[in-house]
Amino acid sequence: MYRNRRLHANRHKLYIRKRRQERVTTESVRRLLDSGLDFALYRFPGEREPHLVLQTNGEALALETLHGGPTTNAGTVGLLPGNEPSGFIFAPFTETAKTPTLLIRPDVAVSGWELIDLETRTLGKQRRISLSSIEMEDRTEDIEESDGYKVAFRSFKYQLDRENYQKLVLSFSQLKDWEGAGHEDELFVRATERFPNSMVYLVYTHQAGRWFGCTPELLLEGYGQKWHTMALAGTRTWEHGEWNGKNVHEQRIVSDYIEGQLQGLGARITRHGPYTSKAGHLFHLRTDYTFHLPKPTQPLNIINLLHPTPALCGLPKMEAWNFIRLFERNRRLYYGGYLGPLNLRAETNIFVNIRCAQIRPGGKALFFAGGGLTRNSIFSEEKDEIKRKMDTLLSALAKDQS
Questions:
Q1: Which of 79, 328, 387, 394 is deepest in the core (most CB within 10 A)?
Q2: Are the C-beta atoms of 299 and 350 separated by less than 8 Å?
Q3: Predicted confidence (pLDDT) per residue in 118-170, tens digit
Q4: Contact 217, 280 (CB under 8 A)
Q5: What's the rounded Cα separation, in Å, for the pair 292 and 278?
Q6: How confident is the model at residue 94 (pLDDT cuts 50, 70, 90)?
Q7: Residue 202 belongs to what domain range?
Q8: Is 401 a domain residue?
């Protein structure tokens, strides 16, 4: 009898402790959202506790990087030798005056809920969720009804069939009602539990608005001469069994490109894979690369060689990038770009921005997804893949998930 009472008491203490922790975490996130300050809250794959980069005044700085050409925003910073930035970087697929690469200054940079709670307790309320620079998208039609996606697919496939490109990536976005919009405090906590193999993030800047995502795709991590990246391509909903030829070919295209870029840097490369990797309820083909460079190199120099990889763009890279900008019929904004801490405490951890949504006022969110097209692509299969990827955030983060 005594043993049962003690067991019950211990369970009750654990329950109370868990509820107290949940309250601390959600309150911390809510304070950040209410402050109106630019911030990035994120948790890396395999970690239990998140990290926070918070800019306590002003707005995130617009950087002038190499891959998108010069920007014209006042206050941009060029990447000159000895002027490498540090902070949390949030980059679009294609830089424009309205979607520049942004750097959140690390006025506060802490790790763990306990320190995040302490740092956010003194924040004031200045709730600001409207977008000042990005024109609102109102594309609400489902992919089943989208003539734009169908026309773009035909255009892309025409080029692939004539072997003008090895691969092209076609994206789609849709504005939907979403229970997560307006409840980002609960959303972030649920996501960290349900996506253990992804980088989960919640980012707000005045220029880009509020973004949420669960991305499994690493672009670059490391420092100095030792780095790590990956090739991630191919998508399906089951784990075991052989991958079909289209997915294997798509993954090989990405792997070959990454290896070629790294060899051009004179890197010594160690490869692991390809193997099947889980992200939410989807599975991908993945190859990991650890590489050593002949001399210490700034991460943005490597990023500019890798971004955008064929996983988000196509091959040949520059030709595919230009074709997408002209014929995709979808504004990617920050989908397909990259994000993460840059030169923060001497380390860099950058992820590709996929499985993401731009959160809007009024309980809505603009969801993004994309798929790699090759000569073997079939319209119905690509359309279904887009739907599955969008459902990752919609269904996997539902409150009543059993």
A1: 328
A2: yes
A3: 999 988 766 554 444 455 566 788 898 899 999 999 999 999 999 999 999 99
A4: no
A5: 27
A6: very high
A7: 12-396
A8: no
Q: How many domains does the chain have?
A: 1
0.70 cut: is pTM over it? yes
- Give pLDDT tens digits for 9-24: 445 444 444 555 556 6
- Asked if the structure places residue 318 within a domain, the reply is yes
As given in the structure block, the two tokens for residue 189 are 């906590």
Tell me what the pLDDT averaged over the chain comes to. 86
- For 7, the token pair is 């067991």
Using alpha carbons only, give the angle 368, 373, 378 rounded to the nearest 5 degrees.
105
- Whether 32 shows a pLDDT value over 60: the answer reads yes
Torsion, Cα of 204, 210, 212, 218 (10° steps): -50
pLDDT of residue 4: 58
Residue 101, helix vs strand vs coil:
strand
Q: How far apart are CA 228 and CA 351, in angstroms?
A: 11
Average pLDDT (274-282) is 88
Per the structure block, which two tokens stand in for 374? 């090759």
Under 8 Å CB-to-CB from 73, ≥6 apart: which residues?
Answer: 62, 97, 100
Q: Which helix (H) or strand (E) holds 306?
A: helix 299-306
Is the pLDDT higher at 160 or at 239?
160
Q: Give all strands of the β-sheet with 101-104 in edge-to-edge order.
A: 77-78, 61-64, 101-104, 87-91, 338-342, 348-352, 218-223, 226-236, 282-292, 268-279
- Is residue 329 situated within a structural domain? yes
Please indicate, yes or no, if residue 3 is contained in any of the structural domains.
Answer: no
Q: What is the CATH number of the domain that holds 236?
A: 3.60.120.10
Of 336, 371, 376, 328, give the one whose Cα is nearest residue 352: 336
Instruction: State how far the Cα of 355 lies from the Cα of 149, in Å rounded to an integer.
Output: 18
* 372: helix, strand or coil: strand
Give the model's pLDDT for residue 20: 52
Q: Which pair of tokens denotes residue 195?
A: 């996506």
- Look-up: residue for tokens 């923060």? 344
Tokens of residue 246, six digits? 């289209």
Pick from 386, 352, 159: which is nearest to 258 by CA? 352
Nearest to 332 by CA among 165, 199, 169: 169
Residue 157 CA, distance from chain mean position: 26
